[in-house]
UniProtKB/TrEMBL annotation:
PANTHER family recorded: ESTER CYCLASE, POLYKETIDE CYCLASE SNOAL-LIKE DOMAIN
Name listed for the protein in its UniProt record: Ester cyclase
InterPro entries found in the cross-reference section: Cyclase_SnoaL-like (IPR009959), NTF2-like_dom_sf (IPR032710)
One Pfam family hit: SnoaL
Species for this entry: Paraburkholderia bengalensis
Length: 135
């Protein structure tokens, strides 16, 4: 699979398609969500992390916000995410408020799969959009 098609499928998978999302990663994937300080090792940890987001935002949708920067086995790209807060996120009950913000993912590829991802986005924006402020 090409880097471009992996990115496209990554965004589709993060749009609440867990089975499709899980096919994109190596078994030993390292996934880092910097705002949430999540350091995930392996597909099972990533699966549980993703499911928590899908439970909180069942209508979550990711889209490419700018063309990806591609290198031999790496990529970086901006994305936009939208959705409605319908379930518990962290310890925050559902607010039924809409989210709409941007972030960046940096990836490494191995054997046609994603072996490492680091996501950067603004947690304060998400919390503000769901009506929660930092204490």
């Amino acid at each position: 699979m090409t880097s471009s098609s992996l990115i496209e499928k990554f965004l589709t998978g993060w749009s609440n398609d867990l089975p499709a999302l899980m096919t994109l990663f190596t078994e030993d994937v390292a996934y880092h969500d910097k705002p949430l300080q999540a350091e995930l090792s392996g597909k099972e940890e990533l699966k549980n992390f993703a499911q928590a987001f899908f439970d909180a935002f069942p209508d979550i949708r990711f889209s490419l916000a700018a063309p990806a920067v591609l290198a031999e086995n790496r990529a970086a790209f901006e994305w936009n995410v939208t959705g409605t807060h319908k379930g518990r996120l962290l310890d925050i009950p559902a607010s039924n408020r809409a989210i709409d913000f941007m972030g960046v993912s940096v990836m490494e590829f191995r054997d046609g799969l994603i072996s490492r991802t680091i996501d950067y986005w603004d947690l304060a924006t998400l919390l503000r959009q769901i009506g929660h402020t930092l204490a």
